[in-house]
Amino acid sequence: MSQLLPPDPALLGVITAFDNLPPEVLAWLLEAGEVWQYAPGEIVVEAGAPADRMLAVVKGTLQYYATTPTGRTPVFSVEASRVTGVLPYSRLQVFRGQGVTIGETILYQLPRSQFAALEHVSPELVQRLVGIMSDRAREEARAQERDDKLRALGKLSAGLSHELNNPAAAISRAAAALADSLLVKPQLLQDMLAACPPADAMAALIALAVLPTEALPALSALQASDREEELAEWLEEQGCPDGYTLAASLLDAGLGLDALAPVSAQLPTDARIPALTWLAGHLATLRLARDIREASQRISTLVNDVKTYSHMDRAGGREKLAITTGLDSTLNIFAHALRQKNVRLTRDYAPDLPLIMGQAGSLNQVWTNLIDNALDALPDKGGELTVHVTKQSDFVCVSIQDNGAGITPEVLAHMFEPFYTTKPAGEGSGQGLDIARRIVQEHGGRLEATSQSGRTEFTAWLPIG
């Protein structure tokens, strides 16, 4: 159990921030504060408790945890010689995490109520502590941005996996069907050659063995069924045992009776079945090869979108950017989530947009937060998401609109405050919009929000590079 230790200036000597302080300052610190010894596993501060003291670890370790209704997660630890808790000029009002001792731990504690007196006793120490606070704030901001991006990527990973799995499965199915199709070709070739078809008949057959370059005219279900039945019956009259199977492949390539009958008439009777079967199989092979190419291109596009989104192939500094490139890569990664909610997406980009000077990965984090929030707000049916990009004076203006229920004025007033969230515990950190606004501000721009019932709009202004 914890116990109060007698004042001893030697205990404060291990604290880095207290190095080389005059003896009278150390004596004041011991008089104004207290030194406590804790057993392993004792809770020193509770999450949500008033941030009422500075803590300095003399011995042992203080481990901080983020707490949720389902448990707690380690966040960071403070080792011996380091200062933690609330510091002079800090705006921290409550402890954000639970602090637990690791091993036997000794802590010096100075109440917040003594900070004003400390300014008179040792302005030098106050300056050191303010420097520590500034360093801590910068580290925390960077950590928040990293964590926020990891959360966003984690949220997108399931959808991205689905997006990659679809073309990968299509490639696998097409490759298997392609192998089956190629297996029968040698026998069909042998059967055709055995019938000794004339060269002009073979030339006419081969002329049909190409896929159309343009989309075929749309047919009603009844028209398509009638054409398939007509062609299947004709194929079976030619001796083909699987007329309906061949008819589907031939019609998919735009070949009906008017194209096939004249060619078939030029062929010897024994050559018609292998020739028509070869033609249907060849056209199916071409379609399978095209499907594999399109699916592989889809995978390449997704990989490029991820690379663009995460900025993996470039340095982390500022550069000239086309703002719509990052927006498109982010929207493409959200494709699965958009389909799941049947969202109608509109991209409205003004022509000839100027470049901006920015850091692509950070800006993509902004778009992720805004789009993710919009998706959460959209109704299950009839959801609409609109992304406008325009040039306004010396800025490129990105507007993300949704037709959700809207944000109340009370919530809107606090929307950009750190750790403010209306989501249930465990579903939102309240950091996303704060980080997004800070990133936009670091780019010399501004991020604003307006909302009414059925229309919420977040707008980012970014200066032209």
Automatic annotation (TrEMBL):
GO molecular function: phosphorelay sensor kinase activity
UniProt-listed InterPro entries: cNMP-bd_dom (IPR000595), cNMP-bd_dom_sf (IPR018490), HATPase_C_sf (IPR036890), HATPase_dom (IPR003594), His_kinase_dom (IPR005467), HisK_dim/P_sf (IPR036097), RmlC-like_jellyroll (IPR014710), Sig_transdc_His_kin-like_C (IPR004358)
Coiled coil ranges: none
Name of protein: histidine kinase
Short name of one Pfam family: cNMP_binding
Ranges for domain Histidine kinase: 292-465
Domain (Cyclic nucleotide-binding) ranges: 17-136
Natural source organism: Hymenobacter setariae
